[in-house]
Design goal:
Blueprint (H helix, E strand, L loop, with lengths): L3 H9 L2 E6 L2 H20 L11 E2 L7 E6 L1 H11 L8 H11 L25 H24 L3 E4 H5 L13 E5 L6 E9 L3 H14 L2 E3 L6 E11 L2 E9 L16 E5 L2 E4 L2 H19 L3 H7 L2 H8 L9 E5 L2 E11 L4 E10 H6 L22 H4 L7 E7 L3 E8 L3 E9 L1
Parallel strand pairs: 1-9, 6-8, 7-11
Antiparallel strand pairs: 1-3, 2-9, 4-5, 5-6, 8-9, 10-11, 12-13, 13-14, 14-17, 15-16, 16-17
Helix pairs in contact: 2-7, 3-4, 3-5, 8-9, 9-10
């Protein structure tokens, strides 16, 4: 049975991860692509469309080493696996966190690599794949917030899909991240495995077939990234390639009423920049509010055509709790779990109050840009300036009978874990 100190060491000690985006990696993915295409040709079949124009990501080329605390990774998993639809959002936001509280190897001696625990590595195949998928998504969210300052995120399936919207949430979707809602965007395909480096190369190859091309009328920069997390017994490495899109640009009437139009296998044209941008902002906000258990407010953020259908999925609101931290006041909800080995685990997830109060419906100009002064889409500068070089801030309060540690993200959300002996 773990002690409180075991929990502390496991969740709060910084662990090393390696991020790789080298020319050698690109060459290996291209070889896999060639093998894949040749297999289809040998069977007299048309090869699937792939993005062959692959490049390294400069800030990670050829490799970079950084540190991550498991509690911040759990925070990231909770954020990105929360659906926009607040149906059972309290469970959707926490079940992955609860499931993987035990998944990381406690620090032993001088070992500082991020490792899965021996128990996590011995679970059955299906659970292992789910763990890999969700840690892969959480790691992608962590990297995008930590290195690209992209605190706005929506599911690509939601962004591109016309009505009716599918209420089911995929376990391994693509995501659309915004660095600036009026300019640069990132389409990210997430992968994860515990098998081997060759398996990771094959996942990256599959990602070049799956990650969609997205073409805006205003020619804004859209970067596609395939992010594959490989968790081995020796450490955790994240491999990233950039499948550069060389699609032809063709301008359409900006008054076109549909948001997007499919123009080829996994290629989409944004036919109405204004509608696409405004809906993306609203869905991103709904996702943040759902994470904090604010179901009714999340639905109120959505485009009006969705609200009537989704309102019926809202359950009785959870009791709201406010907490005060060094970085500001947060409001959110708690989940309490009693473990069979004698611990009480309390999970709190919330949103910065100043951010929550600023999430009202914005207005946009004719080009889809948020009108000046009509909204705030991120926490205030006084809040974000306290993060200095990292997008995550952690605090610890421990006693002889309990530990309370929290992860606060630059996106204005908080994840707090309190563990006590019963």
């Amino acid at each position: 049975m773990p002690t409180l100190n075991d929990w502390l060491n496991t969740l709060l000690t910084e662990r090393e991860i390696k991020i790789i985006s080298s020319s050698d990696l690109i060459d290996k993915v291209r070889q896999k692509q060639s093998q894949r295409s040749q297999d289809f040709v040998d069977h007299s079949k048309l090869p699937p469309p792939m993005k062959y124009n692959l490049t390294p990501v400069p800030i990670f080329s050829p490799s970079a080493t950084t540190c991550i605390q498991p509690i911040s990774l759990l925070h990231s998993i909770g954020r990105i696996t929360t659906p926009h639809v607040p149906n059972l959002a309290d469970l959707s936001s926490t079940w992955a966190i609860i499931r993987y509280l035990w998944a990381f190897e406690p620090v032993q001696g001088l070992e500082q690599q991020l490792l899965l625990s021996s128990i996590a590595r011995q679970i059955d195949f299906h659970q292992k794949q789910l763990l890999s998928d969700e840690i892969g998504m959480g790691m992608a969210y962590y990297i995008m917030t930590e290195f690209f300052s992209t605190t706005e995120v929506i599911d690509v399936s939601i962004a591109l899909q016309e009505l009716p919207v599918d209420l089911q949430y995929s376990t391994s979707p693509d995501f659309l991240f915004f660095e600036d809602l009026n300019r640069k965007a990132f389409v990210v395909e997430c992968k994860g495995n515990q098998s081997s480096y060759p398996a990771t190369i094959d996942q990256l190859r599959r990602g070049t077939e799956q990650v969609p091309s997205l073409i805006f009328q205003d020619r804004r920069k859209v970067t596609a990234l395939v992010v594959a997390t490989c968790m081995l017994g020796s450490g955790t490495s994240i491999y990233i390639v950039d499948p550069v899109d060389d699609s032809d640009y063709e301008k359409h009437d900006d008054d076109y009423q549909r948001k997007t139009e499919k123009i080829g296998p996994n290629r989409w044209r944004v036919t109405n920049d204004r509608l696409f941008t405004s809906d993306s902002i609203l869905f991103s906000r709904a996702k943040t509010l759902s994470y904090a258990g604010a179901d009714t407010e999340a639905i109120a953020q959505l485009p009006s055509i969705y609200q009537e259908e989704w309102t019926k999925y809202v359950r009785k609101p959870l009791e709201e709790t406010k907490i005060r931290t060094k970085l500001g006041d947060f409001s959110g909800v708690r989940d309490i779990i009693q473990t069979i080995d004698g611990f009480r685990v309390e999970i709190y997830r919330g949103i910065l109050e100043e951010l929550r109060e600023s999430l009202y419906i914005p207005s946009f100009d004719e080009k889809g840009r948020a009108e000046k002064g009509s909204m705030r889409i991120s926490p205030s500068e006084s809040f974000t300036s306290q993060f200095k070089e990292k997008a995550y801030y952690t605090e610890l309060d421990e006693s002889k009978t309990q530990i309370e540690n929290r992860s606060i993200c630059q996106d204005g959300t908080i994840f707090q874990l309190t563990i006590s002996e019963v």
